[in-house]
Specification:
Blueprint: E1 8-16, H1 24-39, E2 40-47, H2 59-63, H3 76-84, E3 87-94, H4 101-110, E4 117-118, E5 127-128, E6 135-142, H5 146-152, H6 156-169, E7 174-180, H7 188-205
Helix pairs in contact: 1-7
Length: 206
């Protein structure tokens, strides 16, 4: 966890996910944390790899999905940080047009009943619990060009985040996703331009 100081009093949760310290994702993560250190007071950073987060949903956790209360003992701090967040910033690579397993495991184990939502009594639509969350920004990298993501795959990661996760669990939250496409061939100019886009979005929500 990393705490920083600044001017905004919003609770900002940054969740980053990449196994390599010299990756473009790591560079973007550090850029975001520096930006936040100048503009936000309450920042919590969870680096899933550095924290050794276990992404595997245990048999007990799955068996307890309809228990009251759901057993969150193993991810209590992560659940508390998510519940307290006004702003959520996700930094991760898109692999095979999906989430890295580590990040998918964070969703599986932390976005659970009693934390992100409640089950409806009549097996109807879930009831959102992340009503405090007002902004979510996903900053991602992708090896493919933009047109494959948009026109061939129809932006699956964006749709899942915006509709299935944020839309269902945090209906008051505004969602934005920034993707550096063709990341494997990124040069300094393209990275700097992308960082400028990130800075504009962060400035608009803090």
């Amino acid at each position: 966890m990393t705490e920083t100081t600044g001017s905004s009093d919003a609770n900002v949760l940054v969740v980053s996910c990449h196994p390599l310290a010299d990756s473009l994702c790591a560079q973007l993560r550090e850029h975001i944390l520096v930006h936040l250190s100048k503009s936000a007071t309450n920042v919590t950073h969870l680096d899933l790899y550095a924290a050794g987060f276990d992404p595997v949903l245990s048999p007990d956790e799955r068996a307890g999905y309809h228990a009251k209360p759901y057993p969150t003992d193993a991810v209590g701090q992560e659940a508390a940080d998510l519940s307290a967040a006004d702003i959520l910033i996700l930094v991760f690579p898109v692999w095979w047009f999906g989430f890295p397993a580590m990040l998918k495991g964070w969703f599986d184990r932390v976005w659970v009943p009693g934390v992100a939502y409640d089950h409806a009594d009549n097996a109807g639509p879930i009831k959102p619990r992340l009503l405090k969350l007002r902004q979510c920004v996903a900053v991602t990298t992708m090896g493919s060009p933009w047109w494959i993501d948009r026109f061939i795959l129809f932006r699956p990661v964006r749709r899942i985040l915006a509709r299935a996760l944020i839309g269902a669990c945090a209906p008051k939250c505004r969602f934005n996703m920034l993707t550096h496409y063709a990341a494997d061939s990124a040069d300094k100019n393209s990275i700097d331009r992308f960082k400028g886009r990130v800075d504009k979005v962060l400035a608009s929500i803090l």
